[in-house]
Amino acid sequence: SCLENQCFTEFVFLSGNQFPPVAAQDLQFVLKAGYLEKRRKDHSFLGFEWQKRWCAISKTVFYYYGSDKDKQQKGEFALEGYTIRMNNSLRKDAKKDCCFEISAPDKRIYQFTAATPKEAEEWVQQVQFVIQDTGSNAIPEEEEEEYDDVGQANSEPIDDSIYEEVKGIVEFFLTL
């Protein structure tokens, strides 16, 4: 209804979120989910640079929550147009090999730490899978195809007698 659309528009305007609120447990088609540490946008604030977040990839969207019990996401972003890579320069501690970042031109960079390097690699692989899949929706440019069978489909001579019949019928109606 119009009222729902208006509410959704107001939600987007007020929160800056692109998608409506969804409980962590209600996400559909989840490809990967689990706890990660997410680097704060303003990581000088209060000194808490990394925050534990429950993250999930649902369809082509990356969601993050305070916990897997949250009724609405703290944020989300569509993965289309982003790239992902491991980045061991984000931390100086023992978890430096567990870090990855998701970035796109002119968009916010999202930085995460997994519990282990193996877990980080799994996240990178899943996100790459989604990114490649969203990119493949474009129609690929195919090489020019050559058709050498034109004119060979029906090699029988055309029966011209049908044209004579039509001509005769038309002349008949014209004389009425």
Distance between the termini: 62 Å
Low-confidence stretches are 7-15
Helix % is 25-40%
Order of helices and strands: HEEEEEEEHH
CATH topology (level 3) name of the domain at 22-135: PH-domain like
Sheet/helix structural class: alpha+beta
Mean pLDDT: 81
Rounded Rg: 30 Å
Number of strands: 7
What oligomeric state do these chains adopt?
A: single chain
Strand content: 15-25%
Find the CATH superfamily of the domain at 22-135. Pleckstrin-homology domain (PH domain)/Phosphotyrosine-binding domain (PTB)
Examine the secondary-structure arrangement and name the CATH architecture of the domain at 22-135: Roll
Walkthrough of the structure:
This protein is of the alpha+beta class and 176 residues long. It has a domain at 22-135: PH-domain like (Roll). The protein contains three helices and seven strands. It has helices at residues 2-15, 117-135, 161-174, and strands at residues 30-39, 50-58, 61-65, 75-78, 83-86, 99-103, 110-113. The chain has a seven-stranded antiparallel beta sheet, with helices on one face. The chain is elongated.
Topology:
Elements: H1 2-15, E1 30-39, E2 50-58, E3 61-65, E4 75-78, E5 83-86, E6 99-103, E7 110-113, H2 117-135, H3 161-174
Question: Which keywords apply here?
Answer:
176 residues; PH-domain like; 7-stranded antiparallel beta sheet; PH domain-containing protein; PH_domain; cytoplasm
